[in-house]
Known about the structure:
Two copies of one chain form a homodimer. By secondary structure, chain A is α+β, with helices and mostly antiparallel strands. Chain A has two helices and six strands; from the N terminus they run ββαββββα.
Amino acid sequence: MAEKAFQEYYPDVLAHCYGCGRLNEHGHQIKSYWAGEESVCRFTPAPHHIAVPGYVYGGMLASLIDCHGTGTAAAAAYRAEGRDMASQPPLRFLTASLRVEYVKPTPLGVTLEIRGKVKEAKGRKVVIEEWIVANGVVTVRGEVVAVQVPEQMLDDLVT
Amino acid sequence: MAEKAFQEYYPDVLAHCYGCGRLNEHGHQIKSYWAGEESVCRFTPAPHHIAVPGYVYGGMLASLIDCHGTGTAAAAAYRAEGRDMASQPPLRFLTASLRVEYVKPTPLGVTLEIRGKVKEAKGRKVVIEEWIVANGVVTVRGEVVAVQVPEQMLDDLVT
């Protein structure tokens, strides 16, 4: 796919996150894209990301909701300003709170589709509604309240 | 410590969880204990469990809340029945929902203390209130709604 993922635009100093940092060799390195008004990330958990035999570990699913949520919040902030994600200064979001509802057990061994959309955007706060689909069935619903990283914190990290 | 952790009583078939399974060599293998009416788990995230430089990845913190919560729910269920955790049949809980509030950034490089207590117990549902302490400061607050694994599901897994 020629299109770059949201996470590929993160500045290097912010690209170490275990969930979504492209520079974290031990991490999940998730990749999120727009699909119309929704965002989508495809991820296949490893066999050791198990809960009980046959099913995905809930903490992994929470992690996917978390990082796909902050990624979608950032991408939505650029969109709202009519800016390309490569433009400066970078807009990055941290998770203020996370809610995950395990609707059904999520089967291990299949590619999951994590989908998100902006539920609310107000000032520096963006609320992302998300759901995870396995084999065409929604198994998880979640919500991330993401807050834009203050410029001062970004400056402190970058310099 | 001579005392066994909650997770050391899980039957083998249920001891593969990435967060708390003692048999998952790739996982976190967290260990939870009673401390009076509260439960406690100590865990030191690895350097690669990073969010932004200096701070712990939110998905890891959600994972700790998740597994310490289901462990505490199980231990509380045995306590409520006046049973030893080694007694049969095993009582195990799965997460129905998870809520995590990131109150402050959680510093990387220190041992975290995850604490929990039963907020509500009603039939097969147990609600665990939790908080994470780093350097004496509460950085995360969370809640897990845990539901007892149905006997039939346990039987299917065990046999």
